[in-house]
Amino acid sequence: MQNLMFTGEQPFDTMTNTMRPEDAVRWFGIAPPDLSLISRSRGTDYIYTFLRSFYEEPSSPTGVDNLLLPNTAMPQVLWELQGVNRAVFEVDEAHGGQEVFRGFEQVIPGELTAQQYDRVVRDIVNFLDYIGDPTQLARGALGVRVIAFLLVFLVIAYLLKQQIWKDVR
Ligand code: HEM
């Protein structure tokens, strides 16, 4: 609170998106999804792979495309870290002459190695996973205590039942 919160916000306040949806539609043709819920709607594996699947596509307005979301409107915002990749497609005769993805080739190196970039993406995805459900850890801890209470209560209920029924044959 001392170092990051200067305008009287509270820790439970929501973040305000600085990009207005109508501006986003004007610029990109579509508004970006709410990233605070994206891990719950798409899953962490999807976002991890999405952020690693951008490749150079000169015909696209953003200069990139994505293997997971073809014709995506999202620019590769992490290109300085990752560099620029080219996607290699090959015609596969066994699949009726379809183009099949064969891998990425780096065209321009980024500031990070491939492994370092994967770690950055992993951190981003973990963060998105956390903010998708921030009380998950607290809920887990509470669950253990509830189960412990129920177990103790089971013993008490059993002893009580023995006591009440002991004269009934
Ligand atoms: C590290 C930051 C970011 C992350 C983790 C992220 C992640 C994502 C994800 C997971 C999607 C959904 C893809 C899908 O629906 O399958 C998405 C869509 C999109 N993002 Fe981002 N994004 C980031 C930054 C940005 C920025 C800075 C912009 C704009 C300058 C942007 C523009 C968009 C747009 C326009 C879409 C919609 C794409 C479409 O449906 O074609 N994103 N983003």
Key traits:
alpha+beta; about 15% strand; 2 domains; binds protoporphyrin IX containing FE; about 170 residues; single chain; two-stranded antiparallel sheet; about 45% helix; two-stranded antiparallel ribbon
Count of discrete alpha- or pi-helical segments spanning 4 or more residues:
6
- Determine the fraction of residues in helical runs and give it as a percent range: 40-55%
Query: How many domains comprise the coordinates?
Result: 2
Strand order of the largest sheet: 1-2
Bound compounds, please?
protoporphyrin IX containing FE
How is the biggest beta sheet arranged?
Answer: 2 strands, antiparallel
The radius of gyration computed from the alpha-carbon positions, rounded to a whole number of angstroms, is 26 Å
> Which structural category fits the helices and strands?
alpha+beta
Shape: elongated
Q: Note the run of SSEs as H and E.
A: HHHEEHEEHH
Unreliable residue stretches: none
Beta fraction: 15-25%
End-to-end CA span: 67 Å
What is the mean pLDDT? 93
Q: How many β-strand stretches?
A: 4
Structure, described:
The longest helix is centred in the C-terminal third of the chain and has 30 residues, at 136-165. The protein folds into two domains: 34-134, no CATH class; 135-169. Helix 2 crosses helix 3 (44-51) and helix 2 crosses helix 5 (114-132). It is of the alpha+beta class and 169 residues long. It is built from six helices and four strands, in the order αααββαββαα. The model has no long low-confidence stretch (mean pLDDT 93). The chain is 46% helix and 17% strand. The N and C termini lie far apart (67 Å). The strands form two sheets. The chain has a two-stranded antiparallel ribbon. Protoporphyrin IX containing FE binds at residues 28, 30, 32-33, 35, 38, 42, 47, 50-51, 69, 72-75, 77, 124. Residues 28, 30, 32-33, 35, 38, 42, 47, 50-51, 69, 72-75, 77, 124 line the site of protoporphyrin IX containing FE (HEM).
